[in-house]
Amino acid sequence: MKLAIVSAVAVAAAGFAVAVSYSEATEAPPANASPIYGVTIPEGYRDWKFVAPAQEAPPLDELRAVLANDIAIDAYKSGTLPFPDGSILVKLAYKRKQSTEFPPATVPGAPTTVQVMVKDSKKYPDSHGWGFGRFIDGKPVDLAQHETCLACHESRVKDHDYVFTRYAQ
Ligand code: HEC
After folding, report:
1. How many Å lie between the centroid of ligand 1 and the Cα of residue 9?
2. 27 C-alpha vs ligand 1 centroid, how far in Å?
3. Domain 45-160: CATH architecture, name and number where available
4. Which one has a higher pLDDT value, 20 or 108?
5. Among 48, 114, 134, 139, which is least packed by CB within 10 angstroms?
């Protein structure tokens, strides 16, 4: 009986130790987060709604598709600008490939990057509320690339809350 109590206390203490180290771990930056912004690839994004396609001329020579979560889709549909906090936009990019089954058609080839913009005005006050992330094979690209995001979006689309893509009907 005494042994049972001692071992119960030991188990509880071990559980407490695990809980403490777990909460410390959750305060560290998440794995595979982008430099500067700490943005990660959002779970379930591949099932989000479609906003618009885009095509990039060589040398990138890519097809792109922009998807958005429900908060951003609602903002698009109601014409709400700026996008509200919680909006997330994801751009998927692929090499352009000529269809082998029907040559006039261009189809997605190898995937290249996944790019993410997250709206959180408290977390990102210095970048108009947007956090940026660019990923290759699920891993964030380097700091230098992340230093380019804001400048281009800021200089060209400030009248559309720094977002290029319009909703394609
Ligand atoms: C030189 C300009 C330029 C730079 C630098 C740039 N972007 Fe963009 N971005 C664009 C353009 C143009 C689009 C519109 C879609 C397209 O043409 O691919 C876009 C679209 C996006 C979108 C979809 C939402 C929107 O604004 O249309 C995301 C997400 C995105 N970019 C993330 C990033 C991230 C992350 C970086 C930095 C790692 C970055 N961009 C750097 C030009 C740029």
Report:
1. 55
2. 29
3. 3-Layer(bba) Sandwich (3.50)
4. 108
5. 139
